[in-house]
Amino acid sequence: MPSRPPLTPTALYVGLWLTLAGTAQAQALQEVVVSANRQEQKTFDAPAAVQAVGQDVIGVAGPRVNLSESLNRVPGITVLNRQNYAQDLQLSIRGSGSRSPFGIRGARLIVDGIPATMPDGQGQASTISLPSAGRIEVLRGPLAQLYGNSSAGVVQVFTADGPARPEVLGSLDAGSDGLQRRGLQAAGQQGSLNYLVDLSDFRTDGWRQNSAAERRHLNARLRTEVSDQTRLTVVANVFDQPVSGDPLGLTRAQLATNPRQADIRSTEYQAGKDVSQRQIGLVLDHRLDGSSELMARAYAGQRDLESRLSIPLMFQQAPTAAGGIVEL
Which positions ≥6 away from 77 have C-beta within 8 Å? Predict the structure, then answer.
């Protein structure tokens, strides 16, 4: 009885392609709505390079502490976790902002329509509450100019809608080096009021000396339908980071001796920063017709920062020196 001829590479490739094609036809793709040009539309209709990360992806990507957990899968964007909560993430869109030593530059951060980027162009991703995020949009390219000058891209975070049935959820994440994130969330619909209130507490001892961090976050969104065409949204955000040490960099010899150690200047000057922020905003939407709407926003906030730098005392004593502590 003649044996079956061996399967050629071409036949193998075709067989896999047919299998994948059959699987793709059996699955229905969900419709994705984005806000690339400041108005909600289908992602395929948006004349821009825009991707959206949904709540399901955000929830399984990690403990929902840093944007790098869920955005590292978006093309054209690089989000590096420095593992240093005193310097925050390094976020670069198409190369812009890749040389920023701290904070985020070259890209605008917007949360529920309210800018999270300061007037000087610097943003802090740590103030974004990921446990309450419904989706994250990344807009790349020239269309980002709709959101401001000198913007190579835009990262927008939208708080999730409360479910039709009110619910209270608790969450707990734990890891090595004392990592813990505890969360409590209440959300639902009461008449014309849709609400979501999220409270989270994060802390870690850090892998290196003087790298411990603590964060407390409160994010709330209340939305009511004033009429069939008008709705009012109240957004409140409170962020407190009282502890975030900066272990500084190590030389090659220090790294070989003990990679967990901190530079001696880090412990001598207790390098790190304390930051707190309080913000509230009102967003009024009025739909004129099926394709046009008016939107007005009013917001106010206060941000306090104290940063302890590792500048040797001999340089701080110079008449022209700015000192070793920054208070803003």
Answer: 71, 91, 92, 93, 94, 138, 140, 153
In this structure, is the dihedral angle defined by the CA atoms of residues 36, 37, 42 and 47, taken in order, positive or negative? negative
| E-assigned strand segments in the chain | 33-34, 41-42, 49-54, 77-80, 90-93, 107-111, 114-115, 133-140, 153-159, 167-174, 180-190, 193-204, 213-225, 230-244, 272-287, 293-308, 325-327
- Compute CA 97 distance to the chain's CA centroid, rounded to the nearest angstrom: 16
User: Residue 125 has what DSSP assignment?
Assistant: G
pLDDT in tens, 31-85: 555 555 455 555 544 555 778 888 888 888 888 888 888 888 888 888 888 788 8
Please report, as a single letter, which amino acid is at residue 40. E
Distance of alpha carbon 270 from alpha carbon 267, whole angstroms: 5
- Above pLDDT 70, what percent of the chain? 83
Look up the CATH superfamily of 34-327: TonB-dependent receptor, beta-barrel domain (2.40.170.20)
- Residue range 265-290: average pLDDT? 89
Phi, psi dihedrals of residue 119, rounded to the nearest 5°: -60, -25
186 and 127 Cβ atoms separated by less than 8 Å: no
What gap in Å lies between CA 276 and CA 14, rounded to an integer?
58
Residues 9-43 pLDDT 10s: 333 323 333 333 333 444 444 555 555 545 555 55
